[in-house]
Design brief:
The complex is a heterodimer of chains A (152) and B (468). Chain A is built from five helices and four strands, in the order E-H-E-H-E-H-E-H-H. By secondary structure, chain A is of the alpha/beta class. Chain A has a single domain, classed as Rossmann fold, CATH 3.40.50. In chain B, helix 3 crosses helix 4, helix 5 packs parallel to helix 6 and helix 6 packs parallel to helix 7. Chain B is an alpha/beta fold and 468 residues long. Helices cover 28% and strands 28% of the residues of chain B. The radius of gyration of chain B is 28 Å and the shape is elongated. Classes of the chains: A alpha/beta (152), B alpha/beta (468).
């Protein structure tokens, strides 16, 4: 990880639930609170919608870190979707660590619709941690160009 | 949608190039999803053309009457044994309106209106259902506990605010230290007393660490009551100790009137709050207020006959419980949070639920009334319809892939999934009227047999791989 190319910036994919965290991220904007531009946001109905497969797929596609954020426990718009997500996430995180993914690359947080400031600080923290780790290469799939292979 | 304004340009205002790259990515991701979207089938649902108003204070009463005026039946639920809420403590306004008379007329109108059903000593225990078809359980405590099930199409939250009970400035320890409602009571009761020296202290419990917000009505209250004292007893001296006078809008005119009437406004700073102390000289118990005036950089000492505190408006303690039942958010101060301050100021993000009055934030009487009417006009956009179209974002099962393992049933919070026997064996089936489209089942399914319309695996996957 030492020979990280100069000027490298991590790319983080964030899955935000529609009712709390996505609205919280909007509030961050309305409040003009600044955070690093390394994050790309995907809106999902609920953090419970986030299939573990999405997180693995993101790491395979070269995203350097993933953030899943939902409503606070007890505040889920869908009663308990965030709790389902938490259980699922705990298992996934153990698995990913087992196969060599640094724990700081996959993050889970609770951000309510009123917490614009918290969203900015969560993103800043995740970006800084992933930046310290360097690019994620462990699961990235390299595309094999069959044409080139034949020519060899 | 590519959310570029709130989630890109406004949050990366000084990083032009990186923000532009991010905006391009967001557009790429949105396009990637758009390529694979399909039209959503909306389910048509009936509407119960009846309203529920929670809270029988000024905002709640106004909302109930306005709904009834539009021809809708209303259930008005009040936790206390009488209607009126906070307005009962107020006797007149800055504009000299008689609020007692106003409230009395309003309450009479509520009770004489056939469309309005009032539940006193009543508490909301449970809320279920969705826009157009809510079911609410209310427990009514009148000697014995009675439970009632109410059905309605919309909910208006008007649970109001509460007055902060000061612990500072000898409140509760010296009978000469009052809050504004207590002072109003004293002014209204019996023959006018000689007031002597009255010191009002602003921002008591507001704009501090515990309650960082401005309570908005207390500056107006202080101006109102100092004018009233000057009117009843012109020889009285009134001092208002303030941090910032926030008599916004047309209240400014009354602030000017108060200054002309001889009310003395003295500024203090948060770090050097006024001090109230009991004194004793020549066998007489006195009350002394000292305040550091930042312009002359000296303490001003006033011998007070009465100290009046502008206590903060704090959110009702029951807000949290109700917010959880309704699945609507509170802001950081504990008041109900609207969907959008400018675009949807009386709506919640959850369809069919609206907010008005001091449940939303501290506000003067006139603002509560207009907000209540606004909430009703928004509610009427639903109640006037025979049917409404529900969100088409629901889960669907691909029976060919389903193994009927029942994992989806375990995580469904709405019991919307059941196992059905078909010719080809058992399969899960989603009840589209109950499903809310959270997707917990889809993410749990081992066989990818369930998908959520509008947020399909294919669509989310397209977004993830879009920037590869």
């Amino acid at each position: 990880m030492k020979n990280v190319e100069k000027g490298w910036e991590p790319r983080i994919l964030a899955f935000l639930c529609n009712w709390c965290s996505y609205a919280g991220a909007d509030l961050t904007g309305i409040s003009r609170i600044q955070y690093p531009p390394n994050v790309r946001i995907v809106r999902v109905p609920c953090s419970g919608r986030v299939n573990p497969y999405y997180i693995i797929k993101a790491l395979q596609c070269g995203w350097d870190g993933v953030l899943v954020s939902g409503c606070h426990p007890g505040d889920c718009h869908y009663i308990s979707g965030n709790l389902v997500a938490r259980r699922r996430f705990a298992v996934l995180k153990d698995l990913l660590e087992y196969v060599g993914i640094e724990p700081a690359r996959v993050n889970f947080s609770w951000v309510s619709a009123a917490e614009g400031g918290k969203f900015a600080s969560v993103v800043t923290e995740v970006v800084n941690e992933v930046k310290a780790l360097g690019p994620a290469k462990r699961l990235v799939k390299v595309r094999i160009e069959w044409k080139n292979l034949k020519n060899r | 949608m590519a959310n570029i304004r709130d989630q890109c340009s406004w949050v990366h205002m000084h990083e032009h190039e990186a923000a532009t790259e991010k905006a391009k990515d967001l557009v790429r991701m949105a396009v990637a999803k758009a390529r694979v979207i399909e039209p959503l089938k909306r389910v048509s649902l009936g509407v119960t053309s009846r309203g529920l108003v929670i809270g029988g204070g000024l905002a709640g009463i106004t909302a109930a009457l306005a709904l009834a005026k539009q021809g809708f039946e209303v259930d008005l639920v009040e936790k206390n044994n009488e209607l009126g809420g906070f307005l009962r403590k107020i006797h007149y306004t800055l504009e000299n309106d008689d609020t007692e008379e106003y409230l009395k007329t309003m309450i009479d109108n509520v009770y004489s209106n056939e469309l309005i059903k009032v539940f006193l000593n009543a508490k909301v225990e449970h809320v279920s259902g969705y826009v157009g078809n809510f079911k609410t359980t209310v427990s009514i405590n009148s000697g014995s506990d009675v439970r009632r099930e109410l059905e309605h199409g919309i909910i208006i939250v008007a649970t109001g605010g509460e007055e902060y009970q000061p612990t500072e400035y000898l409140y509760g320890k010296d009978s000469r230290v009052l809050t504004h409602p207590e002072l109003e009571n004293r002014i209204m009761m019996g023959p006018t007393p000689k007031f002597g020296n009255v010191v009002m202290i602003q921002c008591v419990g507001s704009r501090n660490n515990e309650h960082p917000y401005c309570s908005r009505m207390c500056c107006g209250e202080a101006v109102k009551n100092s004018l009233k004292i000057k009117e009843k007893d012109p020889m009285a001296n009134v001092y208002v100790l303030y941090r910032d006078m926030r008599t916004y809008g047309l209240m400014e005119e009354h602030y000017r009137r108060a200054r002309e009437a001889g009310v003395i406004f003295i500024r203090y700073e948060e770090e050097s709050k006024p001090k109230v102390a009991q004194t004793k000289s020549k066998g007489k118990n006195g009350l002394q207020v000292s305040v550091f005036e930042p312009t002359i950089q000296e303490d001003i000492i006033i011998d007070a006959d009465l100290v009046v505190l502008s206590a903060a408006i704090v959110p009702s303690q029951e807000n949290e419980k109700l917010a959880k039942m309704l699945k609507v958010p509170l802001n950081e101060d504990g008041f109900f949070l609207e969907a959008h301050a400018k675009l949807r100021p009386v709506d919640f993000a959850t369809e069919g639920i609206f907010v008005c009055g001091m449940a939303h934030s501290p506000k003067p009487i006139r603002e509560s009334i207009s907000q209540a009417k606004a909430a009703v006009s928004r509610a009427c956009t639903l109640l006037t319809k025979d049917t409404i179209e529900a969100e088409g974002i629901i889960a669907t099962v691909n029976p060919g892939r389903c193994t009927a393992c029942e994992l989806c049933m375990l995580v469904c919070a709405y019991n919307a999934i059941e196992i059905e026997e078909t010719k080809r064996g058992k399969t899960a089936k989603v009840n589209s009227a109950l499903c809310k489209g959270c997707g917990a089942c889809a993410a749990t399914c081992r066989c990818s047999a369930i998908d959520v319309k509008g947020f399909t695996d294919d669509q989310i996957n397209s977004i993830i791989v879009a920037l590869r």
